[in-house]
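[step 3/7] inverse_fold.run input=structure_tokens len=345
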């Protein structure tokens, strides 16, 4: 692993302690560190409580440098606020969960931790700098390239890769691979990270997000193909010879590729995450009257029949009614008190 700051080859450190195994890559020249997922909490063994799970709030300020994850094959590091504090900015990989810390940032973190949570001794930055040697049973230092490896980034976070297929990626031409996420199978490109979803798979995949909280938001998906479209040079994965068209997704600025013949959808890298984020914002911005209207439409769909199965329509209606109930409780505190009395009475 090469240091992202000074270009020096980093040293891999594996430490066996009374508290378990800890591993990290450190730069002997500038003091920068790479910590894999979970290692930040392990280094903080003298701190009561986790400090890693709450370090994921992204900082929107433009970064003066674009850092690539040193562990993943193709993933950027995001600026995140340490425990939400704007004065401590770390770099985190959304794909593998690792953290990049510039030299000296552990000392700054120590000072912040002492003010907000119980810290024993001098925290954990000195652990890396050999002060807490009594805590070690064994320490192994090797050149990073002797043990280095890369982690393949999945087209959708959390997906598992299967075997390659005979279908070609409409973006880069590489053979697509089979993937599984949320118990659902789809095809994706291991090179450019795009995904191919056959008819209705986009709706099904969206329904799996956030335990189904977005499943009743179907208007934008149903409107795909009804908006103005522009023919592209990309060939449909399923139809082979049919050119896909670019369509606007809902009221967003996101343009996706759709096949007018088989109604499959191609999403470039990150577009599914952008799509679900857009739906979350739409859900949050909806007024009570709009939520009520949408809930009634979903109930109506249950009885008249929609594009999904009866069971899926029932689940959509249930999610919509749940959203309507949440709005009603928010607007009428007395209703919340009544429901609480029934639950705990």
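[step 3/7] decode complete -> sequence:
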């Amino acid at each position: 692993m090469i240091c992202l700051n000074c270009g020096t080859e980093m040293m891999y450190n594996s430490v066996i302690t009374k508290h378990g195994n800890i591993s990290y890559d450190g730069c002997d020249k500038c003091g920068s560190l790479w910590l894999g997922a979970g290692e930040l909490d392990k280094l903080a063994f003298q701190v009561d409580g986790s400090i890693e799970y709450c370090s994921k709030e992204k900082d929107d300020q433009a970064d003066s440098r674009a850092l690539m994850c040193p562990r993943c094959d193709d993933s950027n590091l995001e600026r995140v606020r340490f425990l939400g504090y704007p004065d401590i900015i770390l770099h985190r990989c959304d794909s593998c969960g690792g953290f990049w810390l510039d030299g000296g940032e552990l000392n700054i973190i120590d000072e912040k931790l002492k003010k907000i949570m119980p810290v024993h001794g001098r925290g954990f930055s000195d652990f890396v700098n050999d002060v807490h040697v009594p805590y070690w049973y064994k320490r192994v230092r090797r050149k990073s390239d002797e043990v280095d490896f890369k982690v393949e980034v999945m087209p959708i976070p959390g997906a598992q890769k299967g075997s390659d297929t005979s279908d070609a990626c409409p973006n880069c031409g590489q053979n697509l691979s089979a993937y599984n996420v949320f118990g659902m199978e789809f095809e994706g490109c291991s090179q450019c990270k795009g995904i191919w979803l056959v008819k209705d798979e986009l709706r099904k995949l969206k329904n799996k997000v956030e335990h189904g909280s977005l499943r009743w938001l179907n208007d934008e998906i149903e409107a795909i193909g009804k908006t103005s479209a522009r023919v592209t040079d990309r060939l449909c994965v399923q139809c082979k010879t049919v050119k896909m068209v670019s369509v606007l997704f809902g009221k967003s600025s996101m343009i996706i590729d759709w096949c007018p013949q088989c109604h499959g959808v191609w999403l470039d890298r990150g577009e599914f995450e952008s799509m679900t984020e857009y739906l979350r914002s739409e859900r949050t911005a909806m007024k009570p009257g709009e939520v009520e209207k949408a809930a009634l439409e979903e109930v109506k769909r249950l009885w008249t029949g929609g594009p999904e199965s009866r069971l899926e329509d029932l689940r959509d209606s249930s999610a919509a009614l749940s959203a309507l109930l949440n709005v009603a409780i928010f607007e009428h505190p007395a209703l919340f008190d009544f429901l609480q009395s029934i639950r705990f009475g």
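[step 4/7] annotate
Confidence is low (pLDDT under 50) at residues 122-127, 130-136.
The CA atoms of residues 269 and 285 lie 26 Å apart.
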